[in-house]
Amino acid sequence: MAGIWIYSEDIILAKELVTPAKELAKQAGQKVGAIALDAEGAKELAALGVTKVIVLQSSSSWVEAYEQVVADVLQEEGADIVLIGGTIRGKYTAAKAAARLDAGLLTDAVKVMLENNKLIAERFVYGGLAVTTEELSFPAFVTIPPRSYEIMTAESEQGEVIVKEVTAEPGITVVDVIKTQQQGVDISKADRVIGIGRGVEKLEDLTMIQALADAAGAEVGCTRPICEELKWMPIDRYIGISGQVIKGSLYIAVGTSGQIQHVAGIRDSKVIVAINTNEKEPIFTASDYGIVGDYADIVPALTEALQNAKA
């Protein structure tokens, strides 16, 4: 094998990819290389022990324009395994680069390993209901979703950073960028989250939910019907397999039934607490603690208890 390489336009995700890359490198007796789009990000990757970080320097700010250059670098370096951040833009680059190099591609892997000189990857299928194990021969491309791995601590020995002047042909001219207005923090990064479902009957009850969130130091999220059908919350608050995935220390589900699409977005929370009137709802199977009862009674009681504990 010639080496394990990582790439993501998102530097945080790129640093997460270092963890599985180094595990694979240890198994194969190889080193880890990385491709970055900015010098500062490259230094952060080098600090994590990535042996060689190549910075692609170009006048283009259009990430998708680098897919040909990324493929060229990976071919020059003889990469056998390439881990790419599973963002929308990352998947685009992975598909294009893998096709150019005639390599296999597997998307949304949550675990990768080496076995019998093949890359073995696990990923969720059927809306998170099952896990499939697949294998790829080399060269192999795999996209990995954000927050699948923890970021490693920095190492004493830093890798080499090489700046490479390249020509990236965007094919598209960016005239203007308008950022979406987001209320509160990104719930996918929140340590504590309160999630509401269709069991929350009235819009005005969001006030009591927010009071609980304030007392618990949490953010408020929701199931898909709350944002798409009822329009009570913005789409960036939707938690589920096609929405936000949370991996904090606490998730409190208020009035959610626990459909598999929603559970796929909360399964990695350290502690899950369910509040529902129906003890047979599947959310209780996915929870560490369950409270059977009316949220209109339970939520204010929890809020008061938390407030008193702080006093």
Structure write-up:
This protein starts with a strand and ends with a helix. The model has no long low-confidence stretch (mean pLDDT 89). It has 311 residues and is of the alpha/beta class. The strands form 3 sheets. A 7-stranded parallel β-sheet has the order 5-9-4-1-2-3-10, sandwiched between helices. Helix 1 (11-28) packs parallel to helix 2, helix 3 (67-77) crosses helix 4 (88-100) and helix 5 (206-216) runs parallel beside helix 8. The chain has 2 domains: 4-165, HUPs (Rossmann fold), CATH 3.40.50.620; 187-310, TPP-binding domain (Rossmann fold). The chain is built from 8 helices and 15 strands. The radius of gyration is 22 Å and the shape is elongated. 40% of the residues are buried. Helix content is 28%, strand content 25%. Helix 7 (260-263) links the parallel strand 13 (250-254) and strand 14 (271-276).
CATH superfamily of the largest domain: HUPs
Largest sheet: 7 strands, parallel
- Count of individual beta strands: 15
Shape: elongated
**H-E order:** EHEHEHEHEEEEEEEHEHEHEEH
CATH domain fold name of the largest domain: Rossmann fold
What's the rounded overall pLDDT mean? Answer: 89
Count of separate structural domains? 2
Poorly predicted ranges: none
Please report the distance between the alpha carbons of the first and last residues.
60 Å
